């Protein structure tokens, strides 16, 4: 019997979390981990009590907004943001955590992750946001690209 590595284990959980997404464009899952323990998860979707894009359609699609631009023109909250919010709601510190995410964080999420004290981001998939990578690099955040599950 072969056990998955910790990275594979948490990345597969992030993929499962993404299945809860209500975004019509991109399903993203995020898992915050500290000391090999999951402290919070998040997926992208509309805030509590607000209609999901699955129900009302995609505002970004309707307005023709390309991926990676005008983040404020969206009903949804990003997976990384929701993971940080869940940790805050439950009183769990994110300082020193690692984020496993199905996609590269955008600039908004990168800034939140830096300020939340997240020390490492392991992601798969790309996102058209070079500034996010530059900022995380400048903040000396460790980053690793998860390549099709290869370790």
- pLDDT average, as an integer? 94
- In what order do the strands lie side by side in the largest sheet? 2-1-3-4-5
Q: Order of helices and strands, N to C?
A: HEEHHHEHEHE
Biggest sheet record: 5 strands, mixed
Secondary-structure map:
Blueprint: H1 6-18, E1 29-34, E2 37-43, H2 53-56, H3 59-63, H4 79-89, E3 98-101, H5 107-115, E4 120-123, H6 130-138, E5 142-145
Parallel strand pairs: 3-4, 4-5
Antiparallel strand pairs: 1-2, 1-3
Helix pairs in contact: 5-6
Write a structural description.
It is a single chain. The protein is of the alpha/beta class and 151 residues long. 34% of the residues lie in helices and 17% in strands. It has six helices and five strands. The chain has helices at residues 6-18, 53-56, 59-63, 79-89, 107-115, 130-138, and strands at residues 29-34, 37-43, 98-101, 120-123, 142-145. A five-stranded mixed beta sheet has the order 2-1-3-4-5, sandwiched between helices. Strand 3, helix 5 and strand 4 form a beta-alpha-beta unit. Helix 5 (107-115) packs parallel to helix 6 (130-138). The longest helix has 13 residues, at 6-18. It is globular and about 45 Å long. The two termini are 18 Å apart. The mean pLDDT is 94.
């Amino acid at each position: 019997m072969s056990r998955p590595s910790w990275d594979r284990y948490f990345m597969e959980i992030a993929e499962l979390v993404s299945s809860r997404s209500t975004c019509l464009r991109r399903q993203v899952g995020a898992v915050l981990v500290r000391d090999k323990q999951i402290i919070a998860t998040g997926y992208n979707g509309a805030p509590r009590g607000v209609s999901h894009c699955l129900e009302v359609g995609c505002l970004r699609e309707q307005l023709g907004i390309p991926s990676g631009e005008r983040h404020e023109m969206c009903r949804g909250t990003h997976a990384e943001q929701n993971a940080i919010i869940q940790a805050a709601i439950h009183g769990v510190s994110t300082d020193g955590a690692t984020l496993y995410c199905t996609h590269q964080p955008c600039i908004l999420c990168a800034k939140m992750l830096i300020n939340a004290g997240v020390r490492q981001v392991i992601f798969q998939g790309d996102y058209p946001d070079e500034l996010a990578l530059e900022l995380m690099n400048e903040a000396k955040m460790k980053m690793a690209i998860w390549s099709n599950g290869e370790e």
